[in-house]
Specification:
The chain is an alpha/beta fold. The chain has 11 helices and 15 strands. The strands form 3 sheets. Strands 3, 4, 5, 6, 7, 14 and 15 form a 7-stranded mixed beta sheet that branches. Helix 4 crosses helix 5 and helix 4 packs across helix 10. The radius of gyration is 20 Å and the shape is globular.
């Protein structure tokens, strides 16, 4: 294990397929509009980062164009402002902030890209902000109505966030399907009304029963598994909407079925980059922090694993070998045991 001084800026880097290391780096100069943030913790996006780590994507896809080495993984970090640029008026030293940054101990970030964290939230709760933001885009294009019905396929990190947005939006029926039974307690805690453990292509009868004989109006595929798409189409009600929230690395493996035509389905994609003037990194983070601080977006128990950054090889090994047993995998840059 490589050891660095606690004051030395460090970051994680992928140097090739299934190769991760920790390295030191030099911080850029602090420009007038930027701040220096010392990270408390960062959260692994197990879906995205495992696709990248294992190169589980087809040539010519947007994944293939994105992943070049050295590749710096991660996009969700929380920490404390240590220095502010001369023009920064919105933040001051000591402020707790979230930012879309990779796994690193320090970052120089535009002040506009730092989002204040409510004092009542712990670091371990706040660090979910970016995964919540991704799931928000799925909820937004679903156009939920009060009392709506939704089926969420997958109860991993993005699925857990999707459950909580459906609850916050006032959905009356939130059915969750996953093959991993251990994930269902967190799904229930997040607002699932019915949980079904099993393969998605074999649960139509149970979904119908859970909906009182009616299929849900909205189906959200949070898995990123190309094989799920066809089954998802068969589980939406007439004139229903199927949301592709999980981003597969193998889109050519996704197949349409006759359900699209015979039941007039709408298929809509949702992605992290689909920001608008109204809903973007800053506004969604603010909404997430507001709901989480008020108890309307429960986050307790979501973090299942914690690693020192120097344990990065072990962390990605666990994320690959024991995916079903993991939820939130946190890198602790503070050196403390967590909150």
């Amino acid at each position: 294990m490589v050891h660095f001084s606690s004051n030395t800026p460090r970051r994680l880097v992928f140097t090739g397929k299934q190769q991760v290391h920790i390295e030191s780096f030099s911080l850029p100069e602090l420009e007038p509009s930027k701040v220096l943030v010392r990270m408390e913790c960062t959260l692994m996006s197990t879906g995205t980062e495992n696709i990248v780590f294992n190169r589980l994507f087809d040539p010519g896809t947007h994944w293939d164009n994105w992943v070049k080495y050295p590749f710096y993984p991660g996009y969700t970090a929380v920490g404390t402002v240590e220095k502010v640029g001369a023009e920064v008026k919105t933040l001051q030293v000591g402020d707790r902030v979230a930012c879309r940054h990779g796994h690193a101990s320090h970052a120089v970030v535009s002040a506009a890209d730092c989002f204040p964290i409510a004092d009542s939230l712990t670091w371990d709760e706040a660090v979910w902000f970016s995964l919540a933001k991704i799931a928000f885009h799925g909820a937004h294009v679903a156009h939920y109505n009060l009392g709506d019905s939704v089926l969420i396929i997958g109860a991993g990190p993005i699925g857990q966030m999707s459950i909580r947005w459906a609850r916050a939006a006032g959905c009356a029926s939130i059915i969750v399907v996953d093959a991993v039974a251990e994930r269902m307690a967190l799904a229930k805690a997040g607002g699932a009304s019915v949980t079904i453990t099993g393969s998605i292509d074999k649960v139509c009868g149970e979904v119908l029963k859970a909906g009182g004989g009616k299929l849900p109006r909205v189906v959200i595929d949070s898995t990123g598994n190309a094989a799920v798409f066809s089954a998802a189409l068969g589980l939406a009600d007439k004139f229903g909407t199927v949301v592709l929230l999980g981003d597969t690395g193998q889109p050519t493996h996704q197949s349409l079925t006759s359900d699209v035509i015979t039941r007039g389905l709408t298929i809509v994609g949702a992605h992290d980059g689909l920001n608008t003037e109204t809903w973007n990194n800053a506004t969604i983070a603010q909404l997430f922090f507001t709901l989480a601080a008020s108890g309307r977006f429960p986050l307790a128990g979501l973090n299942t694993h914690r690693f020192a950054p120097e344990q990065c090889e072990e962390a990605y090994g666990v994320a690959n070998r024991e995916r079903a047993k993991t939820m939130g995998i946190v890198f602790d840059w503070s050196g403390k045991k967590g909150e």
